[in-house]
Amino acid sequence: MSGRIFHAPFLSTNPGFEFKGVVERHEKKAAAHYPGITSYNSVEELLQDEEIELVIVNTPNFTHFDLAMQALRAGKHVLIEKPAAATSAEVKLMFDLGRKMNRHVMIYQNRRWDSDFLSVKEIIEGGKLGELVEVHFRYDRYKPILSPKKFKETKDTPANGLVYDLGPHIIDNAIALFGRPLSFDKVTAVHREGSEVVDYFNFRLSYPNQLNVYLTSGLLIAEAPPGFVVHGSLGSFVKGRSDVQETQLDGGMLPTDADYGIEPEGSEGKLVIVGVDSQKNIEWIKSPRGNYNGLFDAAYHTIRNNALFPVTEEHISWQLELIES
Fold first, then answer.
1. Which residues lie closer than 8 Å to 279 by C-beta, 6 or more apart?
2. Each residue's pLDDT tens digit in the chain (325 positions)?
3. Among 50, 87, 201, 307, which is least packed by CB within 10 angstroms?
4. Cα separation of 42 and 59, whole Å?
5. Is cis: bond before 83, omega within 30 of 0?
6. Reported CATH class of domain 2-110+295-320
7. How many whole angstroms separate alpha carbon 83 and alpha carbon 177?
8. Architecture label for domain 115-291
9. Do residues 109 and 172 make contact, with C-beta atoms less than 8 angstroms apart?
10. For the chain, how many helices (H) and strands (E)?
11. Where are the domains of the chain?
């Protein structure tokens, strides 16, 4: 699913890339959508292809570290789906090997390019809310039935559970906006019947000036609250999770389509500013266009021009500190 939705449409349309091939060990499906690509029977076969410069690792979480290390040893740049690895120690080993091999290690944190997050980012960085007081980011689902993919539901499998699944998205959102917290608290729980792995979490991140940032996710949230709530000294901003890219890509829309990444009418965020007369002034804010091509453009410039990839090694190390705590 990850390759079909989040990677192939961009590799095939972004002029900075040539989509060479994909590993398909069982069913050969990719060529039906991308004629002319190579279908490799194994990772080893792909890594032996000297034409390939960049390998995208979008396999199950517990395989990310080993496959990324294999690709780096083969002299390839790597773009790794979140979570980067199971531990911060593994993350350090990957980046150290990347430096040794003179190859780039990049982590796929696509939610930085969601329209809803971009809207929140603009409001915060524009200073419209004054000094921030309290921030809530949520990413919820209602999935009471355990996944049929056993590795996702087994406690002995590394990098399992909701903290490793949806956690990287909202933790990275917080780090992208506010940096490393001064301190944090973490609560996890297991609620689904028969579950072995965490299916609820809440972090409280403490930042300078007594700013508290709360990150929450659960798999038994039938009526999800807004994904983003930001309170400041001058007002508040409330924004639902309204990015349409995943739905559009899953339906076959390409990033080159004129309607790609544009939120539908009625998805606007609510900005409430309190004036000097204590009256609330309400404005509905339309989001910027979401576009995951921003991540692929960044990967291109990192590889070709040695630019700094926006999701840095420090960002990922801080993220794993929270996740594995």
1. none
2. 899 999 999 999 999 999 999 999 888 999 999 999 999 999 999 999 999 999 999 999 999 999 999 999 999 999 999 999 999 999 999 999 999 999 999 999 999 999 999 999 999 999 999 999 999 999 999 999 999 988 889 999 999 999 999 999 999 999 999 999 999 999 999 999 999 999 999 999 999 999 999 999 999 999 999 999 999 999 999 999 999 999 999 999 999 999 999 999 999 999 999 998 899 999 999 999 999 999 999 999 999 999 999 999 999 999 999 999 9
3. 50
4. 13
5. yes
6. alpha beta
7. 19
8. 2-Layer Sandwich (3.30)
9. yes
10. 13, 13
11. 2-110+295-320, 115-291
Nearest-angstrom CA–CA distance, 275 and 281: 7
Among 148, 142, 160, which Cα is nearest to 60's? Answer: 160
Contacting residues for 301 by C-beta, under 8 A, at least 6 apart: 307
Which structure tokens are listed for 315?
């960002």
Nearest-10 crossing angle of helices 313-323, 167-178: 130
